[in-house]
Write the structure tokens for this entry.
Amino acid sequence: MSRPARRVPATATAPVYRVALVSGANRGLGFEVARQLSERGMTVLLGARDLDKGLQAARKLAGAPGEVIAVQLDVTQQDQVDTLARWIEVTYGRLDVLVNNAGAFYDPAASPSGTAIAPVRDAMETHLFGSWRLCSALLPLMRRHRYGRIVNVSSGCGASTTDSASCPAYRVSKSALNTYTRALASELEGSGIQVNAVCPGWVATDMGGPGGRPVTAGAAGIVWAACLSEPLTGGFFRDGQRISW
Ligand SMILES: NC(=O)c1ccc[n+]([C@@H]2O[C@H](COP(=O)([O-])OP(=O)(O)OC[C@H]3O[C@@H](n4cnc5c(N)ncnc54)[C@H](OP(=O)(O)O)[C@@H]3O)[C@@H](O)[C@H]2O)c1
């Protein structure tokens, strides 16, 4: 005789399985974001352009509630992005959260008139085109489930309200990332996929240097946007508060 089916209380909801990808997650803010997302039970793909560094970082998070898997990802390499997107589709059939965190080319000593074009192009390649190519490659997987949270890790430095000559390559590339964020969010309005930019504030990482606030605090604002349950899209936030573009 078969057992009677268990009656599920009307209020019970099955936990939702979520898969997240964080770029530049072998250290700094990306690593902490990966840790905090895995603490929430998400399966986290920890992107690292040096896979050995990624594996070492993922090992530190073994035993977290959500599984953490190192994946090779240099965001400037289209073939790596395409290969990873195919692998995620075959392995998980979904991607719920994309955190475009990979960053570099902070150039406080440079000036707009004095800088060479090469570092500006490199900054654009990582911050703007890297984020763009990841979004384009992974949006089909988000569209499939009509759910997605894309967080572009930006900087107040890229706000158009700030006038400053410092960090020209970094500033212009983050500003471009902000504009891309708004354009993509507009396109995806009503799709279930929310796209926001987040400034983590000044954070004591290798890039931020000493004196910044703890990495846990900077990462928390990114994780907040990655886990949004309210319909917020096309915004620029720091610590969960809207800031000016
Ligand atoms: N720290 C701050 O005060 C601050 C403030 C505002 C915004 N942000 C933003 O926050 C993000 C994280 O910064 P962070 O402070 O954590 O910097 P970080 O400690 O220097 O870490 C940067 C990470 O990005 C990775 N990366 C760089 N280029 C990459 C590429 N082409 N492909 C894949 N990964 C790449 C690095 O990998 P490797 O280890 O291989 O170099 C590293 O994992 C950046 O987007 C940054 O602009 C930081």
In short: Residues 1-11 have pLDDT under 50 and may be disordered.
